[in-house]
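S.,

Sequence below, as promised.
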Amino acid sequence: MCFSATASFTAGGLTIAAGVAALDAGKPAYRLLAAVPLLFGIQQCAEGILWLALSHPELAGWAGPATLTYLIVWKVVWPVWVPLAILPLETDPGRRKLPGVLLVTGALLAPALAYGLGAYPVMAKITGPHIQYRQDSPLLFRWVTDLAYPLVVVLTPMLASNQIIRLTGVLLLASLVLTKIFFYYYFASVWCFFAAIISVLVVVIVRASAARIAPSQPEPRGV
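The prediction came back faster than expected:
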């Protein structure tokens, strides 16, 4: 995150533990959602390794793999994983149409961003108390992907009928706005940290859903 390797590893450990707890409690249909904190934990640990690699010359060889791991989860995994985890849990048919469109959008966006990682490599460096990721991609490419990305990963949970999932969407939007205002040049690092902490709410969602589903009631369809 934006402070130190310790902060990243702490956040990583917290979210990995939350992910394990959610996977242990969740029904099969909730497994993709339950794995969200676990993935965030991997992402935060990757940035912790990046902090160490950028701070210690003898560990510099780890900088490339850590950066790539962090960015693949951020740019390629989340645009598909978020709608794919939430949409099958939606029990209100009227709320499935737009999230379905967002799932298709994410499925198109992920390979475009993966191409961008290959075509326009990212440079990561420590700037004061932050890690800055810089990618010199074409302006139009950035505009399109920067608009589509939050639509997929933020709007999808905000449209859910589940109140706690909607709350995570609202918190993601609030953290996105605050990060854009106060940490613009470090957006990739800071917003992912906020999102990782917010993802701990997944444990509440999964445990509440497991307690609410009676044996005679059908579960949401699995993925």
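The longest strand covers residues 122-127.

Coffee later?
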